[in-house]
């Protein structure tokens, strides 16, 4: 989806939608940090592995190590164990004191999440839950075979078939940046009505800060009522919004990433997987723009969506906006379908009942292939060597001679 002009959106099919009020609810993605071996097969994101299992990936009997940070690690481990996986260990980089403080405030801020966490932990009763620990390296040949873990004092190795690793979530800010919305350290800056710095543009959910599904639902209702100018409903939801915001603040404070994670990457560890840019080529760059000019970091198919957040954490670079606000030739920040919200004006191309028949072409309109496309490679004909003339040899008559 792109913004070809003011108050105009263009979908991936080239259809333009005019709008007076726009609500952005584009979600978030997983946050990855590079370490030696993180590009091996079967080293995947925690949420990505859960999605793969739900869509049919067989993990029954497979050894899985779940590592990273955030409360989603317990949910991922419980889901994998429910599908028959052998969860070797759950590794959380936050220390035990931070988790205890967060757990004590959880019944007051979000009672439903407190009981949900207890249910997940009961399902993983015999699975070790290691706090203050993080992965150092992944080892293996054609796929991951083991992961090296540390708690800052000692190191050990766990054998595994899959490593589900994720260090939290990163909000999707590309479309908000494309529209010119102002940002703050947690995401898109909004007011009490979920309205951004651009008049008529509202934002709800993870782009305004990571805070869970309940917070996203309340913010979505707020944005909808504010866009419809129902101010009495907006005022009614303010208390719930503040309560969920306090939970989001406690969540960010409890699972803040430790400084030791900045030293995980070795000199030859790839930071940009699309362009194969190692850590040693980026450590001397001073900004994201300089890194793109000298190493092509962030210029691959993902356009910096994977390595951008990692470089911001590792090197302290401030990422530029997705694209300047221009009315000519804007590139879409990410694919986003509007089909669930609006009817499709064109018939579906894969539906045999509604698919239109192609128009018949006349003989003059039939495209003629270029002669160079099917030209055969002509080789000189092989000449036989010249042989001297020989008289034909007389063969004996195979028939027997008759007696006279």
Describe this structure in words.
- The structure is a single chain.
- With 404 residues, this protein is an alpha/beta fold.
- The protein folds into 3 domains: 2-27 and 177-254, 3-Layer(bba) Sandwich (FAD/NAD(P)-binding domain); 32-167, FAD/NAD(P)-binding domain (3-Layer(bba) Sandwich), CATH 3.50.50.60; 265-318.
- 28% of the residues lie in helices and 18% in strands.
- It contains 11 helices and 19 strands.
- It has helices at 46-54, 72-82, 96-109, 111-123, 174-179, 213-227, 231-236, 238-254, 279-282, 288-295, 307-315; strands spanning 2-5, 8-10, 16-18, 22-24, 28-30, 43-44, 63-68, 86-92, 129-131, 134-140, 144-150, 155-159, 162-166, 169-171, 183-184, 187-188, 201-203, 270-272, 277-278.
- Helix 3 (96-109) packs across helix 4 (111-123) and helix 3 packs antiparallel against helix 8.
- The radius of gyration is 31 Å and the shape is extended.
- The chain starts with a strand and ends in an 89-residue tail after the last helix.
- 29% of the residues are buried.
- Mean pLDDT is 82; it is low at 324-332, 347-358 and 373-377.
Summarize the structure.
This protein is α/β, with parallel strands linked by helices and 404 residues long. The protein has 11 helices and 19 strands.
* Proportion of beta-strand residues: 15-25%
> How would a textbook summarize the main sheet?
5 strands, parallel
Q: Can you name the CATH architecture of the largest domain? A: 3-Layer(bba) Sandwich
Determine the CATH superfamily of the largest domain.
FAD/NAD(P)-binding domain
Could you name the CATH class of the largest domain? Alpha Beta
Number of helices: 11
Q: Please tell me the total number of domains.
A: 3
Encode the helix/strand succession as letters.
EEEEEEHEHEHHEEEEEEHEEEHHHEEHHH
Task: Calculate the mean pLDDT score and round it.
Answer: 82
The rounded Rg comes to 31 Å
Task: Please identify the oligomeric state.
Answer: single chain
Number of strands: 19
């Amino acid at each position: 989806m792109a913004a070809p002009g003011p108050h105009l959106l263009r979908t991936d099919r080239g259809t333009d939608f005019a709008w007076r009020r726009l609500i952005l609810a584009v979600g978030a993605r997983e946050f990855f940090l590079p370490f030696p071996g993180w590009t091996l097969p079967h080293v995947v994101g925690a949420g990505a592995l859960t999605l793969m299992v739900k869509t049919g990936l067989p993990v029954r009997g497979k050894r899985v190590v779940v590592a990273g940070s955030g409360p989603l690690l317990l949910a991922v481990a419980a889901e994998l164990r429910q599908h028959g996986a052998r969860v070797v260990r759950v590794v959380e980089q936050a220390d035990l004191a931070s988790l205890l403080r967060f757990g004590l405030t959880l019944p007051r801020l979000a009672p439903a999440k407190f009981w949900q966490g207890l249910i997940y932990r009961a399902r993983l009763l015999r699975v070790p839950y290691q706090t203050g620990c993080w992965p150092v390296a992944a080892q293996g040949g054609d796929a991951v075979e083991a992961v090296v873990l540390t708690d800052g004092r000692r190191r050990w190795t766990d054998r595994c078939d899959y490593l589900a690793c994720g260090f939290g979530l990163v909000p999707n800010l590309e479309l908000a940046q494309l529209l010119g919305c102002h940002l703050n350290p947690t995401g898109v800056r909004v007011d009490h009505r979920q309205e951004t710095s651009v008049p008529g543009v509202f934002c709800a959910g993870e782009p305004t800060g990571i805070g869970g599904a309940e917070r996203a639902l309340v913010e979505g209702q707020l944005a909808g009522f504010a866009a419809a100018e129902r101010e009495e409903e907006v005022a009614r939801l303010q208390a719930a919004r503040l309560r969920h915001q306090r939970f989001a603040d406690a969540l960010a404070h409890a699972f803040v990433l430790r400084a030791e994670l900045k030293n995980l990457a070795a000199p030859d560890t790839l930071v940009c997987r699309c362009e194969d840019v190692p850590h040693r080529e980026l450590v001397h760059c001073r900004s994201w723009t300089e890194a793109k000019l000298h190493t092509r970091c962030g210029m691959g198919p993902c356009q910096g969506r994977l390595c951008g957040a990692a470089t911001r954490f590792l090197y302290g670079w401030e990422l530029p906006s997705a694209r300047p606000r221009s009315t000519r030739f804007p590139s879409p920040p990410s694919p986003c379908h509007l089909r669930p919200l609006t009817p499709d004006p064109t018939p579906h191309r894969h539906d045999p009942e509604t698919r239109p028949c192609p128009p018949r072409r006349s003989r003059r309109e039939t495209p003629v292939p270029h002669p160079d496309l099917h030209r055969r490679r002509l080789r000189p004909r092989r000449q036989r060597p010249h042989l001297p003339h020989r008289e034909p040899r007389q063969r004996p008559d195979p028939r027997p001679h008759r007696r006279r």
